[in-house]
Amino acid sequence: MTKEKKIYIGLAVILSLGFLSLSTVFPSYLNKGIDFTNNLGSSILGFKINIPHFREFPFRLGLDLQGGSRLIYEADLKDIPQDEKAEAMQGLRDIIERRVNLFGVTEPTVVTEEVKGHSRLVVELAGVKEVSEAIEMIGKTPYLEFREERSQEESEKILEKQKELKEKNFENYQEIENWQLALEDPYFKPTRLTGQYLKKATLGFDETTYEPQVLLEFDSEGTEIFNELTTRNIDKRIAIYIDNALISAPIVKEAIPSGKAQITGKFSIGEAKELVRNLNAGALPVPIKLISQTTVGPSLGAVSLSKSLRAGIFGFLAVALFMIIFYRLSGIVAVLALLIYAGVLLSLLKLIPVTLTLAGIGGAILSVGMAVDANVLVFERMKEELKRGEDFTRAVEIGFFRAWPSILDSNLTTLIVALTMFSFGTSFVKGFALTLSLGVLCSMFSAIFITRTFLRLFVGTRLEKIEFLWR
């Protein structure tokens, strides 16, 4: 493959990447153009044109940008064995996240952290103004229960009653006989067996197939109840619920009088571990106490977002002006590369998606400096080669070759620091580290591939001969 062909392929890749980024970051503008084209084509050609719209991915904003509440709970683990504390906290986190989702909060953030030997749970409820109900729901003890399968006749009665209620307004519910029946689970009914009788759940492996399985052990009273339950439900399902949410429904193969049972199935190890955590969270409730509540109003969040965007735009324009003044045509090339870099980075922030906070925006803006730094190293190397009398082609190639070790070292050390911050930091620090890491990776791609491809386009042209543009 010739060098010219490689350059044009690279240019095609860059333009495609730029278009995809544009369609992800600003789909509404492109969709307006599509609507105009569809209407114009229909009126001129006489038949309907139906070009599909680009899918719109919203940015995911943290509570400091859209308002909301940040709650910090401290967990009481004094009754939990040391080697089970991490699992207990992870199980508690899963339960709280499920409760917050049921409450209707969009994209909540629930994380655990250790602060000076204290186990804490951080709950971020973006967009929530009144959090009293959420606080009440979060503070409840997780409730684990086992339910047995209903007969087909019972299920049909409940489903029929639910169908009747759908055809009525709420005010007319009482006109229906036994309308309360519609509020029950149509497939499973409660039993006496709850989480208070479960001693523990552990992860095990089948001795023959080595497939993961979940092992249950009940206390003495729970053993009797479980024996009765399994005896009358052979070849039927027993459903396991936490906070009225179904987490598993294994089939009973035989009566189990020992109080020790196995839940088998096509589990992955991760799925089996999650089920164990959830069971233990329901069986071993961890008391939590609200120790901090911070509320950010939506107006304050909007001001913060506006100021952050303004800072980002002004910073980008200042960098662009600097590059054009000091490096002239090379600077213009760098600005074009930075625009594509910005599009790619914003697309990644939407598609992953990353929850953007003020710290996260700061990390993204900081990565712009890293991108410019890489271009500066390359351009300075190019100027040195041109002063030594090298032609433009060799100056470009040698400039990138000699600048690459410095670019790699500086970006790699930044990535190591960001990874450390992400591993050991709190939620705001994690946001900063994640956006910085994505920005650094995009900046390396921008400097080495995009800028290099653009500069190669000038090889053999008249602009190559004009020394002022490059020195």
Poorly predicted residue ranges: none
- Report the sheet-strand fraction: 15-25%
Distance between the termini: 31 Å
In what order do the strands lie side by side in the largest sheet? 3-4-2-12
Number of helical stretches of at least 4 residues:
12
Order of helices and strands: HHEHEHEEHEHEEEHEEEHEHEHHH
Helix/sheet category? alpha+beta
- Coarse morphology: elongated
Number of domains: 3
Oligomer: single chain
The helical percent reads 55-70%
Arithmetic mean pLDDT: 83
Your description of this structure?
With 471 residues, the protein is α+β, with helices and mostly antiparallel strands. It has three domains: 3-45; 68-150 and 187-296, Gyrase A, domain 2 (2-Layer Sandwich); 298-469, Multidrug efflux transporter AcrB transmembrane domain (Multidrug efflux transporter AcrB transmembrane fold). It is 55% helix and 17% strand. The protein has helices at residues 3-25, 27-45, 63-66, 85-103, 132-138, 152-166, 220-231, 269-283, 298-351, 358-387, 392-424, 427-456; strands spanning 60-61, 68-75, 109-115, 118-126, 144-149, 188-194, 198-205, 212-218, 238-242, 245-248, 260-263, 288-296, 355-356. Helix 1 packs antiparallel against helix 12.
